[in-house]
Sequence to fold (310 residues):
Amino acid sequence: MSQSQHATQHNFTSGNVCFVQSYAKINLTLDVLGKRPDGYHELATLMQTIDLYDTICLSRIDEDRVDMVCNVPELSNENNLVIHAAQAIRQKLGLRQGLAIELHKRIPVAAGLGGGSSNAAAVLQALQQWWQLPLSQDDLWQMAADLGSDVPFFLTGGLALCEGRGEKIVPQVANLPEAWRWLLLVKPAIGVSTATVFRQLTASDYSTGSWSRAVQAALQNQQPLFSSDLHNCLERGVLEQYAEVAQARAAVLHAGASNVRLSGSGPSLFSFFPTLTEAALVQHQLQTQGYEVYLTRALTTDGSPIHFFH
Fold:
């Protein structure tokens, strides 16, 4: 299966309408190596798509414009990345075909789960396939990189090592420990500004990228891993600066999870479980405390199975 099919394997296309699913991600690791001359930070991060998704409906319209509506009202505006993605394709190819976009959000917003970036990548790929456009993979990648640092990852999805500012993607074989069969996501009831979190990094938070490369090697060689190996350079600062995230982390551990890590810049936290029974028990306890909790799993978006090893 070609890369251009990865993120849109669940497309449903019928004449003037195309539906596509747009998956969230977690950062298994996140190394920040330092600040770049362009103002971004140099990263090394292992990202993994998960079975939590938004649904996007694309419809042809006669007018030469792109319209968009979202079930989260504050996202129904011209700044949404799905509009930018559609306009990038229209402008590159000089297309006059109009488009109406309906975005049904299920991925929490500003949560460290890449929802907006995933939406943009899904629109790029859906239009490429649906309209049979003369765009190469390099064309799509360049448009994705221009839209945002995480967008290129979602063109392939699955498990990948992402470097640079996040746009250099090296797909990995989907080997995961059996203890990671189920995944619990907890979203504290606050938003976290990614830019603010990065601004408040100290030199002691930086790393060489060794955490991500060590986990990458362990997964590919099917070697044992511990939750302490899943290092996130942003975690210390987020836990110190946002009491709600620290409280949520404590609540997850108290409910019975043996591991809790921060995804991206947060505030979402994730925990792995070997059985559905254990994951569902912790989910129930957290929900009774009022937490927003999602029981999900790691996913390859090209339809290939994940190999779970002992």
